[in-house]
Amino acid sequence: MLEPFLPHRPVVAVHPKMPEALHEANGVAAYLREKGIAAPTGSLYDETLRKRLKQGEFDLLIALGGDGTILRAGHLCGPANVPILGINLGRLGFLIQVEHKDCRAMLDQMLRGDSWMESRMMLRVEHMRAGESRSVLHALNEAAVSRGQYLRPVRLSVNVDGRLLTTYVADGLIASTPTGSTAYALAAGGPILPPELRNILLVPIAAHLSVNRAVVLSEGSSINILIQGENTILSVDGQEPVGLEQDDHVDVRASEYAAKFVRFGDPGYFYRNLTAHMHQNSI
Question: pTM (2 decimals)?
Fold first, then answer.
């Protein structure tokens, strides 16, 4: 039986580059006030809001926007162990169950205790250079090691649990969560994994005379990607890319954090949402 979720201290947040979202967020906050629940509003990039969330002041983040907004919310809320309720103002919304037109009805449903919590795996991605850690990031969708601005394939030697898996000559390699299997990994020809799984998916991008099949690894796998050449970048969930150098390593494993989402109805919502979007052109 799915355990219901009843929030008491929500915050409503938006992406600052979606001006229309702030207006909608104020409407959501006003509706919650009518229900006797105070909910401040703000930007996902606001340092004061982020600090308050990390300190445990809120027990729910209501995020209005598209999938990019939800990814940003996941990066913030995963380490803070704060659930997310996404309300779709974007085009696709693979990560979002609630459409804007239905948000008041779904808020009422949540406040009646008719919702449940879904936990989604994240990845820990560490950039190593000369034996020193340069950065550690946590991904909800994927980490992509790929070619930079030049139209030349990159050479990547990949070890799994200390043993050589293969050397890719390709435009890049994606290490994806099941959540990310409907994102960049899907566009690169990877399989769709149910979100409740805890596997790591490796998908090469435009492999050149090398292994061109996706590989599904267990949650406990440790992946080491050795960069063998120049003109290579690392991008985590589509964020600003990081330049990589010859002999850099990108280490990927399951994160100690998970992104939690408020969901409605039965877990089959994922397949209904997927079917609705699979033949939809977002342009």
Answer: 0.92
**Structural tokens at position 236:** 């985590």
Q: Would you give the end-to-end CA distance of the chain in angstroms?
A: 40
Question: Which residues are designated catalytic?
Answer: 67
C-beta separation of 142 from 176 below 8 A: yes
Domain that holds residue 156: 122-256
Q: How large is the angle between the packed helices 67-80 and 47-54, nearest 10 degrees?
A: 40
Residues 31-67 have pLDDT tens digits of 999 999 999 999 999 999 999 999 999 999 999 999 9
The beta strands (E) that lie in the chain are given as: 10-14, 41-43, 60-65, 84-88, 98-99, 116-129, 132-139, 142-147, 154-160, 163-170, 172-176, 199-205, 215-218, 223-227, 232-236, 242-244, 249-263
Q: Same domain, yes or no, for 90 and 202?
A: no
Is residue 271 located within the same domain as residue 185? no
One domain for residues 212 and 136: yes
Taking the alpha carbons of 71, 277, 65, 2 in that order, is the dihedral positive or negative? negative
Q: What is the pLDDT of residues 111-140, one digit of tens each?
A: 999 999 999 999 999 999 999 999 999 999
Q: Name the strand (E) or helix (H) holding 106.
A: helix 103-111
Residue 1 located in a structural domain: no
